[in-house]
Amino acid sequence: MEAPIEIKLPPIRNGTVIDHIASGQALNVMKILGVNENNIDSSISIGMHVQSEVMGWKDIVKIEDRELDAATVDKIALIAPDATISIIRDYYVADKYKVTLEGHVVGLARCSNPNCITNRGEPVAPEFIVEGTHPPKLRCCYCDRMLINITDHLL
Amino acid sequence: MVNMDLYDKDVVSIRDFTKDQIEGVLDLAQEMVPYALGEKRSRALDGRILGNLFFEPSTRTKLSFESAAHRLGCDVIDVSEMSMTSISKGETLADTIKMVDTYCDVIALRHPYEGAARLAAKFSENPVINAGDGAGSHPTQTLLDLFTMREAKGTLEGLNIVLVGDLKYGRTVHSLADALTMFGAKLTLVAPETLQMPEDIVRHLEEKGCHPVKTAVLDDVIGQADVLYVTRIQRERFPDHNEYSKVAGTYRIDNAILREAKSDMIVMHPLPRVDEIALEVDSTPHARYFKQAFNGVPVRMALLYSILGGVL
After folding, report:
1. Domain of residue A31, CATH code
2. Within this chain, do residues A136 and A122 fall inside the same structural domain, yes or no?
């Protein structure tokens, strides 16, 4: 059990808290959420380089008035395999779970090999087999190459 | 002579094979040799059709697939230029495969993009054999390479194999190194730094218990080799012509360097060669590359026979 730490981000009434994000990945999580100052009316709080007993340092993102769909959570797992998702309703934690990264990852990222057939307009979703989680290691099921720089290849 | 293991199966990557399956194919290929030489006749695959789809130039692979099919009484339909197909009109490979699939019983595919064979296997009801996909894998070449080594050395176990040349872009050496680890081979990788085996492939070999030695100097290691596997430094795989010019012609095998080799060491090459192996080597007992090219026929016969379920 992680010891309580000083709360540096304001609580949210409704929405999602993404905790235990690997330090330095908060902005990439924001990219996955697809939110920026021009397309959202709710508050977003970001804690970067927050002290954590379990992880040493971690990032936290709180987003108000939004609950994440499964595909978004799966994408977050690709860059933050230890992240926990808490769904907040009326200030209470209605649901809390850890992201999972295992088996096959389909349609969440494109292959980093430009000569991979999945990058040539064929009617298939890119598919990877998870070969490691810390850090995440994905191998393309088509061309057999390792996915390099996952963040840049998220769909 | 039945190898049910591969019946109706795709052959996409050598990684899909177990050691036993590889040995089964090599044993069957050995039995196919008199048929491949035309000394015996067979109609084992009479009435079956091979669809030979070659979207990239190829001489040996395409011809040996055709020869293998004909030697077993199997008919062949083929495409050998992308410009003559609907792909040039923008048709996807997936659609092309779905169409060709209805015309034949098995497809052999050579394609410039990596992963094309895996994609084709997904869209084809009939089995697909990967005849080389870009810089990806080329499993039938690997099988014929293993067949050639076993034929010359009597075994594949624990051989000392030196791979030399383009180990970065050369697809044959990636598949071959992968397969050799199953047989406890000792691998030495000889290449200039810019053409060394990609790190992720070396890591994969290490995970399988093989710890290849890397060097840029062939003279230091040729004396220990049972097999010297030479590859061409391929101009077409280089995105940058300057990089090609810097390394082309780095290693050249001639009789002078072979003086350092064991008397029974064999020299292999997937061909075509440009100037990596001097012509004078052809007449030495070391030269195996033309025998290796012939071995493509019995090995591909063994695969077609196993996949289509032939009866000799």
Report:
1. 3.30.70.140
2. yes
Facing A117 at nearest CB: one of B13, B93, B200: B93
Q: Which of residues A81, A98, A115 is at a domain's end?
A: A98
Q: How far apart are CA A58 and CA A40, in angstroms?
A: 25
Q: State the residue range of the domain holding A27.
A: 15-98
How far B83 CA lies from chain A's nearest CA (Å)?
Answer: 17
pLDDT tens for chain B, residues 1 to 312: 555 689 999 999 998 999 999 999 999 999 999 999 999 999 999 999 999 999 988 888 999 999 999 999 999 999 876 666 666 668 899 999 999 999 999 999 999 999 999 999 999 999 999 999 987 789 999 999 999 999 999 999 999 999 999 898 876 898 899 999 999 999 999 998 888 998 888 988 999 999 999 999 999 999 999 999 999 887 776 777 887 777 777 789 999 999 999 999 999 999 888 889 999 999 999 999 999 999 999 999 999 999 999 777
Domain CATH for A118? 2.30.30.20
Among the partner-chain residues A120, A123, A141, the one whose CB lies closest to the CB of B113 is A120
What is the DSSP code string of A24-36? T-HHHHHHHHT--
Question: Does any domain span residue A1?
Answer: no
* Those residues with Cβ within 8 angstroms of residue B36's Cβ, 6 or more apart along the chain or in another chain: B67, B68, B71, B294, B297, B298, B301
Domains plus CATH for chain B?
4-137+295-308 (3.40.50.1370), 139-292 (3.40.50.1370)
Q: Given an 8 Å threshold on Cβ–Cβ distance, is A115 in contact with B112?
A: yes
Question: In this structure, are A111 and A148 located in the same domain?
Answer: yes
The number of distinct structural domains making up chain A is 2
- Region of residue B47 (phi > 0: left; psi between -120 and 50: alpha; otherwise: beta): left
B114/A117 Cβ within 8 A: yes
Q: Please tell me the pTM assigned to this model.
A: 0.89
Radius of gyration of chain B (CA): 19
Same domain as A109, residue A58: no
Using the Cβ of A10 and the Cβ atoms of chain B, whether some distance falls under 8 Å is answered with: no
Tell me: cis bond preceding B272? Omega within 30 of 0 counts.
yes
- What is the Cα gyration radius of chain A? 17
